[in-house]
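Section: Multi-chain targets

For targets with more than one molecule, the full set of components is provided together so that the structure can be written out for the assembly as a whole rather than chain by chain. Components appear in the order listed by the source. The example entry contains two components.
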Amino acid sequence: MPNLRIHPAVGVARIGNSAEFFVGPEIPGVPGNWDSDNNVFRKFKDAEGKVPRQAARFRVFEFDDAGNPVKEVTLAEGVKIEWRVHVANRKASFFSFHGQSGAETNPPYADRDKRPPDSVERKERGRGEPELKNKRNAGVADRRSLEIDPGIVSISSPGSVDLIDSQTAAPIKLLGQLRMEPEGRLLFLGGAGESASTQTPPRPIEDYANNDTWFDDMCDGVIQASVTLPTGEVQIAQSAWIIVGPPKFAPGIRNVVSLYDLLWDLAVRLRLPCQPGSDPTLQDLAAQQQAWQDATNDFAPSYVPSFMAHIYPVLSRALAAYDVQVTIRRDAHATFADWTRLSKATDDTAQMRQAVFRRVRDPNSNALDRMSMPRGLGDDYTSLDDFENGLADAPLPGAFLSLTKVQYALLKAWAQGRFKEDWKFGDVTYAPIPTPTPVTPHGLDCAALENCVGGPFYPGIEVSWLIRRPELYAAAFRLKEPGFTIGPLTFQAGFFSQQMALPWHADFYDCHKEDHTTDDAPEPLVYMWWTAQRPDEVRAEEDGPYSRWVQRFDAFKEPDVDDPDDLGNLARFEQMRTRWSELSFIVLTGDEHLEQK
Amino acid sequence: MSNKGFRRCAPAILFGLLLAQGMHAQTVVPGSEAQARAYYIRISKELGFQATPSVTTLDNLLDFVGYPVSAEKVETLDPAVLMDPARVSSPQEGLGLQLLGLNGASVRDGDILAMRFFAPKITNVNVAAPVPGWRKLVRLRARPDSRAARAGIQTVVILFNFFANVASDQPFSGTSVNTQVMLLAPSRTDRLYWLDFQPDRTLGLQLNASFDAADLPDGASHPYFVPDGCNDCHGSPSNLRPPMLNYLDTDHWFDRLDDDFASLKTANTPLLFDAHTNDTSQPSFAQAFDVIRRFNEEALAQDEIAQANSFEAQAVRTWLKLHAQSDQHFPPVSRGFSLTGASVWQPSEAGGLAELNRYCFRCHGSVRFSVFDRAAVVERAGIMRQRIKPSQPQLKRYFKMPPDRTLNDQDLQMLDDFLKHLK
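Its structure, encoded as tokens over all components, is:
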């Protein structure tokens, strides 16, 4: 009985308004749309200046009993593959997003589910901060009419089929398209970045996350495949999930906490089933699962991290972040651009490693720590906002982003000198982007997820905090088959996207860096949201000036506000909603990340 | 009540500045011309003093603080004359102030402090034979009923900057190449305002200095604009808090006779120029030293108003404590301090501290931390080692120390070895 699984277990598509598309990352370390032959990024704009979609490509693999992939299952030799895809957009019928509201109960949303849809989550405070109801579109009784759900869509021969809900009352019907390649692989293409209101003229977008009457064409859902062997035997592959996000505008820069890091962390700490076979990465995961000590949130000393696999990624992302966010000093984070020394486990370099580690926020601490790194805002941002508005005595520690517990433990081991000295690139700013190797099942998982945001989730870029729920996982990196409930929620198509901002453009504008400098701060305390997905400041030339990434929108700000980022400038949302595709992509050019020409 | 997205505060100004400016090779924040102009416009409104670049003169400023006299005279008059109310009031010998008193107020003892001294801090050490810098500091109390006093300004500190070859026994015979002015306004939010005057004594936007000269040809300098360039070295990086007055570290001046300025030692040029000698036992030395002591007491008072718990304030407290009864030169290892009660420098560490004092104190006496705060150095030792021996990618990002010169391999190794063993 073959053991069939779809990979990537979680695939990632990104919206685009061009007829063109490219296949998303499939090799770990190789970003999307990277031209390995010429070591440059391909164009992220088509001839008309529109943005090509990032397709997610799914494949079926056969595994042996030890967990080793035997082969990729294709249409060759009389095999038939039927892909069954169910995605949906349930944003407009879901609870409004309000930080961690809903997360405080187990199961989530248990408390909010008891409240009337039109009960007030928070009061109106002024323009740009409207009253927030428990549910979006609280006054609409027919909740199904608020959902875009094409149902299960199948494709079993090369060609294409649209994901369209012709029944919905929503002004958006199309969520994307399925294509089957000649080999039998599935390409999932998401939406065009469309949004629309049921109202004419459209109701103004006033909030970063919750706007009644509005719809967009994001979605997520399950990818299933059944394989008919030449014998006529039908095998069902373990299903995968598709998530759809906005374009990743700095494709060469990853988030300090990626979605891969988050799912890895869950896999280690929850000891999610993992059949590593001969995959070295999964063998490493299994080793971490064994060495993880719950009581101390640390690894047993027997576990020795790899500098290249575990340390370099975190530090290099922090270094690259300042290519898309201007900071007070040009040399900020340049302490990381010293891989030769930082990768040595000698006494000679101990001070340097320890100096870096001392600056890292401890995810195991219950103490508020504004100063440490990463300088990112966190899931409990609401508490910071409340504090700054005089509604709370102090922010919660989670108002600021922490690395995952596993990332932190790995850095700790590194600081202590317990790591493999496997850096091999000498004095360079960044390790070269790897030369593509044949795809592997886990490599597909990694490549898809490492380019997504793993935190903070306020609400997030591709998914939000529901992704952390342990009961969702069948195995490491693999979600369970849908159809079960978690309290008031059903794990079904649209489960992750329903938490996200509606329309996504509003939060995408507002997730720029924020200044929360305190009176006693020794330096400006400026925090990022997701600068690797949504840059803050960018440069066209290596030694050129920085400019606001969204500067082109500034001319359209409303006349009664001084600052285009002011909450009263509702034009910012409309600008992003209608002109997002005009924004530049930031690509690795030499060893700097600059606007693609 | 959460909403995302907008926080308005001062650093936004700074970031705006950086946006306009782009990359810069300087380690000390240079500021920008645009920001300097905006600053002068702001303080003109706040203080009621029209600060217009290339138009406003140092004479105008003196008039504003109640000394309607020639700036040239203030620059050139002997401190002994300036500090003597009778002599300074004389129209023949001094400034003729008795004729110009406001509401009859005459110059009182202590209204003017003046001193001249060796200033290694302004000297470009990125040349084979550094030309020593010298400074004349004149501190004027805003005269009662002056416009400055009405605007909350208590004192004005004027720093005239000179450079003279070692052979010169008259380092102050030339003209100030740049004149920095601090207006101390303890009751105002800023606490301290900056002005900068060009050699022709008209208002300028920037100080040209060699703090980051390592990447420049011999003798060249970078611009540091008001207020950011000033604030960065006066305890207010990013302009978050009020800047502070830096104290005059006589001990550091004498330290430097043993390294970059040995020729001054040979020439026996008086470092406290008004003492006319380096012999600390001489009454003239004590007299000159006492003027500096009085100034440093005032610096501490200003620091305590601005940032009482700062390392800068602790540094001047340490100097004042050491020199409460003594005009002697204290070696570096006896000048350590701690803000936290951590251990201070020990005699066994004197060699390494001397290196830090020579190569790092110029900035890290007042920028971010002091090398005399041992715990602060220990905490940063790893990063400091990276900075003194940066990788190529770090160099490209200007991650290099010291920024004012390129050290030879031997000195680098000595510093690295010293820092490596610090615990």
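The interface with chain A takes residues 1-12, 14-15, 18-24, 27, 29, 237-238, 240, 379-383, 385-386, 390-394, 396-399, 419-420, 422 of chain B (CB under 8 Å).
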